[in-house]
Amino acid sequence: MQKTTNLLCKPALRFKHFSRKGYALFSCLGREVLICILSVSTLSHSRADGISVVNETSDETLSLKEQKLDEVIVTGSRAPLTESEAAKIVSVITRDDIQRMAAETVNDVLKTATGVDVRQRGGFGVQTDISIGGGTFDQIAILLNGVNISNPQTGHLSADFPVTLDDIQRIEVIKGAAARVYGAGAFNGAINIVTQSPVAEANTSQRQSYSPLVLSLEGGSYGTFGLSARGEHRTGKTTTLANSLSASYKQSDGAVRNSYFRKSTAYYQGGTAFRLHKSSTEASSLSWSLGLSTMRYGANTFYSAAYPDQYESNARIFANVRADLTPFSGIIGKTIHLMPSLYWNRNYDHFQLIRHSTKGENFHRNDATGASLNAYCNWLLGRTSAGFEIRREKIWSTNLGTPMQEEDYFKVPHYDVNYTKSKARTDVSLFLEHNILLSNFTTSLGVMANKNTGYNDSYRIYPGIDMSYRPSDRWKVTASWNMAFRMPTFTDLFYKSPTQEGNIGLKPEKTTSLRLGGQYRTTGIMAQVGAFYDWGTDMIDWVMYSSDDIYHSANFKLDNRGLDADVDILPQEWNNTFYISKIHVGYAFTDQKRHDDVNIYKSNYAMEYLRHKLIAILDHKVYSRLFASWQFRWQERMGSYILYADNKSTGIAHPYSPYALLDAKLSWKERHYEFSLSLNNITNTHYYDIGNVEQPGFWLMASAKIKL
């Protein structure tokens, strides 16, 4: 049984085995707890041997104080470790947290995470740049159930998630260089969206009651309308077969001129749990998924304030198959977990600088295909894991890549235009990790060997070490040192327009990251603090060298340093009848140091980071089944944007102004239905998050949900 909690960000906890230690129950209070072993193949997937059960209402949740709980498993390494053993802290936003928020998209949810920077060009997550710890949107890995869905064309399109909020079980946020765990894309961290798994344990007594069909309807300001449906079906007793399917549609006229959008998603998951042979002590599983998302939107001033009538459309198709196998359990005396995975992502992008005009028009199609294998086992000297990933990226375009032979041209779907350029590269990564586990100390040492045919044919080594020390059951201190690198995107290398020029001579980014952290947990209180310093070499940014220049992609040396802290007060752990369920306060500070001597007039991304970010959240009961959630966010961004007059540049760089936003959500929750009212930007604050893209003022959304 899972205990849904009110913590905004906390380690994901999962059962491993029952423990008689006095602190075992205490360590689980106020945390997300999943009864299962989490088999982590962080390059390929993140799933459990059994279903991750998630209760829909507090009526279905048993008090943790009435249960026998065990040591728990956290993510963050290539092999699973218990919460007390883990050398790294992974922040988690739970399903319960998401349902209480005044959020319409995954991107809205991530705005409440300390240390995460979310810059939206359009409302409702139409196009969003997500970064961590002062980095850029291209420097994090975007994962869906552990599968890398980052877009090799540009990180601008990576956060186009094909799932709805109802699909999501939790969101994992990994801060800092994590290449040796998540691959080369995790240059400055990773965001892992974990959906509700339809796969159940072979032991049906551990299944959760669920709603076979959930229907949602919403509407609100700016002509916004949306509907969604999610269904789930399970069969079998000794061998379980499960399927889930969701679909959604949303549209809006937009808050400003030419900011409308039309968005559709569909997501299917299937899986089965079984035992490979009678002697196996643990269940194996096979799962598969297929997703589709399409979006068409007015891109008012998205890439240049000189062109207010820009237009863009995107489509994404992806599929993957993954397994968690224990073929040697009981045969050689040790359980060896094998976790293979295959995936394929295809992305289409159509951009018009002027709507219904061929001026500045671009068409792109890119494919990312990958295969990976992760394995781990326990032995006398600790827990060891090893694996590999091969990822092939290729783009066909009218703008990006090198010229194709004319006989290789092929038509853009639905348009009388040919793809005339292309580029391909293959990334190979090998992984090895060993965990030394002592009573109050853990050391996790790992290394990634990587080569990319887009750079050279040599392997490069990126090591890392994570350590944790637990002086008592309540305290935990961590330290990490890791190295990572990132290949330039195809846009960084090749994009060319009247206002932008790529650079085919760009070098891959490289970083060395040091992180220190501490955590304190007692009844009703959880506190966490962290500090970091990242030494960056050959960092990539789009810059202008003078006021009349165009943007160039260039390498430079840049260090990021900062700290973040979170405090959660959970009064219901002292008294479960208390009306306030959570008070959360989080703060992040980031500073940069650039070492190059070249003067830069304007940075477009890397040096437009959040200097300060303050988050405050209050969740409480209003009356009976009426609940309220209040979210306050204040942030100050470094950098500037160029002022325009009559769609022409004035050459004046205007610094970003600090701003504060207040959101709220009122919800009436019953077992089979729910009504909610979301009030966003209650103070009607006028602000800019990126460039000259004006953000929505006050807007209101009402929604209804039925569970059949």
Search tags:
single chain, mainly beta
Largest sheet report: 22 strands, antiparallel, barrel
Mean pLDDT: 85
Multimeric status of the protein: single chain
The Rg value, from CA coordinates, equals: 24 Å
Give the structural class. Answer: mainly beta
Number of strands: 43
Number of helices: 4
Please bin the fraction of helical residues. Answer: under 10%
The fraction of residues assigned to DSSP E strands is over 45%
Head-to-tail CA distance between termini: 21 Å
Spans where pLDDT lies below 50 across 5 or more residues: 1-72, 200-209
Overall shape: it is globular
Describe the structure.
It is built from four helices and 43 strands. The chain has a 22-stranded antiparallel beta barrel. A five-stranded mixed beta sheet has the order 7-12-13-10-11. It is 3% helix and 54% strand. By secondary structure, it is an all-beta fold.
Write a brief structural summary:
By secondary structure, this protein is mostly beta strands. The chain contains 4 helices and 43 strands.
Please render the helix and strand layout as text:
Blueprint: E1 12-17, E2 32-34, E3 38-41, E4 45-48, E5 71-74, E6 81-82, E7 91-94, H1 95-100, H2 106-110, E8 116-120, E9 128-132, E10 141-144, E11 147-148, E12 168-175, H3 179-182, E13 189-195, E14 213-220, E15 224-235, E16 240-252, E17 261-274, E18 284-298, E19 311-324, E20 337-352, E21 362-379, E22 382-397, E23 402-403, E24 410-411, E25 418-419, E26 421-437, E27 441-452, E28 460-469, E29 475-486, H4 490-494, E30 496-497, E31 500-501, E32 509-522, E33 525-544, E34 551-569, E35 580-594, E36 602-603, E37 610-623, E38 626-637, E39 640-645, E40 648-655, E41 659-669, E42 673-680, E43 699-707
Parallel strand pairs: 1-2, 10-13, 31-34
Antiparallel strand pairs: 1-5, 3-4, 5-6, 7-12, 8-9, 10-11, 12-13, 14-15, 14-43, 15-16, 16-17, 17-18, 18-19, 19-20, 20-21, 21-22, 22-26, 23-26, 24-25, 26-27, 27-28, 28-29, 29-32, 30-31, 32-33, 33-34, 33-36, 34-35, 35-37, 37-38, 38-41, 39-40, 41-42, 42-43
